[in-house]
Amino acid sequence: MAKARKQQEEELTEDLSTEEKIKEAARTVFTKKGYAATRTRDIAEEAGINLALLNYYFRSKEKLFQQVMSENIQKLFGIILPLVTDATTKLDVKIELIASAYIDLIRQNPDLPLFVLSEIRNNPVQFKNRVPLDKILENSSLIEQLKERRPDIHPVQFLLNVLALCVFPFVSRPIWLAAKVFDEKEFAAAMEDRKRLIPVWVKAMLKAK
């Protein structure tokens, strides 16, 4: 009985490992080629498995994409949504938490911004249906805090600035590395420093007239 249970656990672990390998390969290929130009064969080759095995886990490219995209959106927005809707956290603290959390997330998933941004551009309506930003912002305590602090600044302008400060360095990372402005270690150190600098800059913007 114990032997059979152990075998089941090993098979489950192997299944999870293969499924994650496929999803990681899909993220890589979808980011490079976009959804339309990607073939399931491309993903199978990237994952180092045969096409039949990929089809066993994911019946179609669309289903695989939907799962990968949903997980990516959850990663990217799962951090900010609890913060923007939390009325108990002060605005200055929220800025610090958002900057730190986003930079940590993207350092762990460097292709994530490009993947999500490419799909926002290619399928804006589909993205809106998955992430109803209009409804989220309407019920956001962050928006109310911003209006109270700076009624002369549109809250979305503020959010765009914060997200750009967090995300753009990673989108432009290949340029800085190619130009030898940073090496990998220096870039990582610079991003770590941004967790301290971004709140300083944003608070200065909120004070500026």
TrEMBL record:
Keyword Transmembrane helix among UniProt keywords: yes
One matching Pfam family: TetR_N
Record-linked InterPro entries: Homeodomain-like_sf (IPR009057), HTH-type_TetR-like_transc_reg (IPR050109), HTH_TetR (IPR001647)
Transmembrane annotation, as ranges: 158-176
Protein name from the UniProt record: TetR/AcrR family transcriptional regulator
Domain HTH tetR-type residues, every copy: 16-76
Family matches, as SUPFAM superfamilies: Homeodomain-like (SSF46689)
Keywords tagged on the record: DNA-binding, Membrane, Transmembrane, Transmembrane helix
Keyword Transmembrane helix: yes
Gene3D superfamilies recorded: Tetracycline Repressor, domain 2
